[in-house]
Amino acid sequence: MEVYKGEKKRLYLENNSIAHLFSFQVKEFMEVHEYRRDEWIILEGMRPDFLFYVMEGRAKIYVTHQNGKVSLINFINAKDYIGEMELLNDVYYTKGIQASTKTICFALPIYRYRTQLLEDAKFLRELTKFLSVKATLMAAKYSQSLAFPLENRLADFILQTADEGIYKEKHVTVCDYLGVSYRHLLHVLTQFCDKKYLQKKGRNYQIKQYHSLYELAEVLKNK
Question: From residue 94, how far is each of 42, 66, 118, 145 by CA, in Å?
Fold first, then answer.
């Protein structure tokens, strides 16, 4: 993880502002953090020191069950918060957050500014909007598993997780997240390769036809 300093930080803050989300000045104590692919932004079970606002990149949310199984439960994209549940709740079991591409976040120290944030009506209105959209998307994900074929859901998953055109997620993770069998997943991936949507490269896949995957994924959004 890199924390931007000096001129690099100044230029990034100058070119990227989230001042409109707050009633008080946040620029002077806002940090800028950059995470590499597969780097942990928050470790599971450890309360974060910052409230993050994602400016660039994508991340994945993981949880470990009592039987030791680790599951992917959701995605984080640009303009999403990380650590908002820990800000709002004194007691909350923190999920693991891992960058799936290079990810740049604004980082606001929680413990120093928690009271100020929780008394800021403008920030709380924006946070409420974010949480309502997040809850709606989570509900939609579960309904999609019943309403749409794997082809549509896998296309959307590939587009969300690919980094620079390369899809490299573990099959067992995908099966768990999409609620499908290993055999069914491999069958659809083979179909995608036969149709030239993807090209297999070792254990990974290179996206060859973005437009075809977008067409399949778009069906989920039009329902």
Answer: 8, 15, 19, 26
